Amino acid sequence: MSNKWIYIALFLWVVSCGDSEEKKQQQQPTNWNTEKSSDFNRSLSQKEADNIQLYLEMRPDWQMTTTGTGLQYWIYKEGNGAAPQPDEIAEIEYEISLLTGELCYKTESDEYEEVRVDRSDIESGIQESLKLLKVGDEAKLIIPSHLGQGLLGDFDKIPPLKSLVVDIKLIGIKNK
């Protein structure tokens, strides 16, 4: 009976060694390099740009302007107030959606959010847009993912690598 256990143990050892070699081969990383990474990023960026373009083609009345960073904006209602300066507090109302129309965030009616210009953790695309607006302006923004929540999303309502559509109104400015 003891020989039987030795043969079983020997068989299991041989089988498990074969599996571990196979597993090692399966776990070998692919030959990933800088060129493949750059190609992958270009592909993601192009796909996102195509999706934004399709979205805007369905809205021909939106007269978008594109900044050097890729932010697109259209001030559809002009105010007559001052423009916020760095370190001032902008009082804004906003609605953030995905290109699919799915609402992610919205300020409550008759409420606003305070954002310190150049000093808050709000999406960099919204920060950039604040410098383009005057009090009373209402604008539509298309924020590419690299100016929004990026590769990770916000771990709540905005998925990774998603462009954002923002309807924003600058309702006031406060000093520090």
Please tell me about this protein's structure.
- The chain is of the alpha+beta class.
- The chain has a domain at 64-174: Chitinase A, domain 3.
- It has helices at residues 2-27, 34-57, 124-130; strands at 65-66, 72-77, 89-98, 103-106, 113-116, 138-143, 164-174.
- Strands 1, 2, 3, 4, 5, 6 and 7 form a seven-stranded antiparallel sheet that branches.
- The longest helix has 26 residues, at 2-27.
Draw up the topology in text.
Layout: H1 2-27, H2 34-57, E1 65-66, E2 72-77, E3 89-98, E4 103-106, E5 113-116, H3 124-130, E6 138-143, E7 164-174
Antiparallel strand pairs: 1-2, 2-6, 3-4, 3-5, 3-7, 6-7
Q: Summarize the main sheet.
A: 7 strands, antiparallel
Number of DSSP-assigned strands: 7
Radius of gyration: 26 Å
**Proportion in helices:** 25-40%
Helices and strands, in N-to-C order? HHEEEEEHEE
Q: Structural class of the helices, strands and pairings? A: alpha+beta
DSSP strand content:
15-25%
Spatial shape? elongated
Q: Which blocks of ≥5 consecutive residues have pLDDT under 50?
A: none
| End-to-end CA span | 86 Å
Average of the residue pLDDT scores: 88
